Amino acid sequence: MLPAVTATRYVTPLREGGSLPGLMEADDLGTYVVKYTGAGQGPAALVAEVIAAGIARSLALPVPDLVTVDVDPALASNEPDEEVQHLLRASGGRNLGVDFLPGALDLDPVAFDVDPDFAGRVLWFDAFVGNVDRSWRNPNMLFWHSRPYLIDHGATLTFHHNWASAAAAAGRPYDATDHALLGCSPDLDAADAAFAALVTEPVLRAAAEDVPEEWLAGSDAEQARTAYVDHLAARLAARRTWLDSAREAIAAHDANARRLVARNRPAWLDGRA
């Protein structure tokens, strides 16, 4: 299970995210970006965060540490922002804390050197968990202590918003056309060779076991965890489909890049001037 801490002070809202996470201090003297069960996306987004981060960690992909944060609604009494007050009062109990990385920079793939191996591994992981939120508009990567970190995985595992159609989603192609790392020549085949054998049933089970039971309210918790494990195992088995769609996106991006280079190539280089 994830380590458990108790919030002692609300520091400030972080308005970059659509769900208004907040920076909070806790009784372990740590500082966390807290994502709330009472936010508009509800506990499902927190479930996705926990399971996706657990899988990423098993693949040695860098993600910040996670904890559960017990939030007392009484903390809202000192907050002047009505939206923050509402969130805190609606989120009593266990919420998700993401280790705050002070001084971290947004990782812009244009500004930072991202090698093809790392790019391929991130793209493989995103295609597997169906991450729709790592685009060139919003890479959701940080650079901290000379390392990249993957953050914000609440928009993964989108199948769990409609369990009735989840089985059909297992083999769904992955739309990588706007992926943040397409321009980094991702080596998807090397990533598949390295990762496919690592995503085992025990790995998926361990990631699902990290989800607090109350976030799975409305269903039997163990059955719900098993449903996540079964779906992700089926997704892995159907990986040819989503790998092929990712490869197509890489090829299309590379072809467009070559056309742009050819279009802007000075005429004198070809003896045309």
In short:
This protein is of the alpha+beta class. It has a 5-stranded mixed beta barrel with strand order 1-2-3-5-4.
Write the layout of secondary structure elements.
Blueprint: E1 4-13, E2 22-26, E3 31-35, H1 42-58, E4 66-71, H2 82-89, E5 93-99, E6 105-106, H3 116-129, E7 141-144, E8 147-150, H4 166-169, H5 188-195, H6 201-209, H7 221-237, H8 239-264
Helix pairs in contact: 1-6, 3-5, 3-8, 6-7
Characterise the protein shown here:
The protein starts with a strand and ends in a 9-residue tail after the last helix. The protein has 273 residues and is an alpha+beta fold. The longest helix has 26 residues, at 239-264. The model has no long low-confidence stretch (mean pLDDT 93). The protein has a five-stranded mixed barrel. Helix 6 (201-209) runs antiparallel to helix 7. The protein has helices at residues 42-58, 82-89, 116-129, 166-169, 188-195, 201-209, 221-237, 239-264; strands at residues 4-13, 22-26, 31-35, 66-71, 93-99, 105-106, 141-144, 147-150.
Strand order of the largest sheet: 1-2-3-5-4
The termini sit apart by 68 Å
Q: Major sheet, described briefly? A: 5 strands, mixed, barrel
Shape: globular
Record keyword descriptors for this entry.
273 residues; alpha+beta; 5-stranded mixed barrel; 3-stranded antiparallel beta sheet; 8 helices; 38% helix; 16% strand
